[in-house]
Amino acid sequence: MALPMAQQMNAFSQRIQHISDAQQQLSGGLAHVSKTQASVQNNMLALMEKRLSAVTETMSVNLQGSAQRTAKSLGELQQRLQTIDKAQENIEKLSGNVLSLQDILSNKQTRGAFGEIQLNDIVGKALPKDSYSLQATLSNGKRADCLIHLPNPPGPIAIDSKFPLEAYEALRAAETQWELNEAAKMMRQAVKKHINDISQKYIIDGETADGALMFLPSEAVYAELHANFSEVVREGFDKRVWIVSPTTCMATLNTMRAILKDARMREQAGSIRKELALLYSDVDRLETRVGNLDRHFQQASKDVAEIKISAEKAGKRAHRLDNFDFEELAEDTPQSVPFKPKI
Fold it and tell me: What's the pTM?
């Protein structure tokens, strides 16, 4: 009984030893696994720190670039806002100028001054200063805005500035047929009155030309008259009053400038003929004096040649005298020709 029990105990002891060995191997494996896990964990932490650093750096660069782009965009936006502010200021100034122009045109006196200034500017650009007079007073006491000094015929021609703005604005603002008819009636009356005034005041027999010009400082009013009020324009022709706008006035003044130039050339024709006659006399007298001078030069040349011959003979004689050659000297001396000094 003890032997089998000893064998079992021995076997049990071997198993325990085997278990202890296995436990030691397991403990070593666990330590290796723990060490490996610690190494892997350290590598993971280092990799994560590296990636986190790269991500942080990338985010910093991106944020810095975004900040620069944002600052640039803000600067451009500020410049555009400044440009918009300047444009707004210009618009406000232009609006003020438009309001000022409306204020000028709303008053008849200032509107008349506006037309006169525009007329003066056009006339000053088209004609020389001595060919026209501004605010010229005629013999009847009436004062024309401008008087062009054209020769007879046709004679001085007057230009007066008129601006029927109220009638034109009423015509443009008409909404009903009745308002349109009333505005057209007002337009006809205003223009006819201006035509009659100019015909009576600025056309004087024997003093001015047989016609005058009515200057409209607005191309729109001029176009409206010729488009829808042709009978008024024809009535102006009958009254010898020609309606002109800034454009047609410039063309008319250029024609007048050609007339003035031709008249001045005719006035100077007599003086030119007189100067040509004097020039011909001067040329004839110059020709005579040149002939006299030529004869003097020919006589002087002949005298010089004779003096040269006498000098040569005198030189020969002096040479013979120096050599005591009296015989040849006696032979060369003419006996029959007496000596006559030249004066």
Answer: 0.48
